[in-house]
Model the fold of this input.
Amino acid sequence: MNNLCWNDELQCHWSAWRVISERHLALDLPPHNSCDMSGAIRIAQFLCPEVDRIDTYHAGLPDTRYRFNHDDDKWEAFVPARNSEE
Done:
């Protein structure tokens, strides 16, 4: 786990936050780490107050997407479908 940071809000190690677009961030996590959704949202909003989408990646592979539903005024989590060949 060299060069990785632990974060109490995420409740896991992380390796990078990336800006995808004005309201879209990505969080890179090392293998065998899963973040706390509420913690990821708090940190993302601190970094980018208007964020409405956060994608998490484990070892470079898509994992969970957090998206703000403007109609319901709440955050939702989605897990992308896995390719059956993986």
User: Anything to note?
Assistant: The chain has one domain: 15-78.
